[in-house]
Amino acid sequence: MILYPAIDIMEGKAVRLVKGDFEAKKVYDEDPLEAARRWVDEGADHLHVVDLDGARAGHPMNLDHVRRIAAELGKPVQLGGGLRTLEAIAQALQAGAERVILGTAAFTGGPLLEQALEAHGPERVMVSVDVRDGRVSIEGWTKAAEEEVGEVFANLVGRGVQELLYTNVDRDGMLEGQSDEDVAWAAKGVGSAAHLIYSGGIGRLEDLRALADLNEPSLTGVIVGKALYEQRFTVAQARSVLDG
């Protein structure tokens, strides 16, 4: 299982939110590149970057930071936040992102998802299913989508999606662990036709060990943010658990 340290960018800084609340942020690094560099120096082989300003504005706002991170560190970067047009997706990939993450656009953007998959391939286009209060959350976690959560994974796989991200927004930034039942349910919903990355609430090495112990073939990665920033464990320790 792959570890994806998170770098969330707001107003040019690396921050973490609590339950997706833009007003409940904590700044950890003045320069997102330095946050990313720290995780790479500790052994990270992949990075997860979120343009929080872009998610709220509806278009990319921090591609310069993405460009610096990708160019200087040379590690695969997956990027989400405000990617709601083909032009924005192309700009993100040109900035150095290895893979783009669509959220709102996958549910409200008409044929955009299919167009992106066709233009860039299913390995470079991920869809994020963000769940808050039992509903799929869109537009920077500020609104609920119309689709029921139970239908979403099967529908997305049916549309050709092979890379999926499941975020439990209610647990995000809380460091209280995940619901293993929810993760197993999501992994089974994805099935054997796609890969799933989990995000939300990881606070201890035991949380990572529990995810690995699920032995769900479709569960191929986990995103960790605040626990690393708060030094609950290191990248090397996390990778050891996930690899073991």
What does this structure look like?
With 244 residues, the chain is of the alpha/beta class. It has a single domain (2-243), classed as TIM Barrel (Alpha-Beta Barrel). 38% of the residues lie in helices and 28% in strands. Strands 1-4-5-6-7-10-11-12 form an 8-stranded parallel β-barrel, surrounded by 7 helices. A hairpin with a 2-residue loop joins strand 2 (13-18) and strand 3. Helix 1 (32-41) runs parallel beside helix 3 and helix 9 packs parallel to helix 11. The longest helix is centred in the N-terminal third of the chain and has 11 residues, at 63-73. It is globular.
Record keyword descriptors for this entry.
12 strands, TIM Barrel, alpha/beta, 244 residues, single chain, eight-stranded parallel barrel, globular
Structure described in brief:
With 244 residues, the protein is α/β, with parallel strands linked by helices.
Would you spell out the secondary-structure blueprint of this structure?
Elements: E1 2-10, E2 13-18, E3 21-29, H1 32-41, E4 47-51, H2 52-57, H3 63-73, E5 77-80, H4 86-94, E6 99-102, H5 104-108, H6 112-120, E7 125-132, E8 135-138, E9 143-144, H7 149-158, E10 163-168, H8 180-190, E11 195-199, H9 205-213, E12 219-224, H10 226-229, H11 235-243
Parallel strand pairs: 1-4, 1-12, 4-5, 5-6, 6-7, 7-10, 10-11, 11-12
Antiparallel strand pairs: 1-2, 2-3, 7-8, 8-9
Helix pairs in contact: 1-3, 9-11
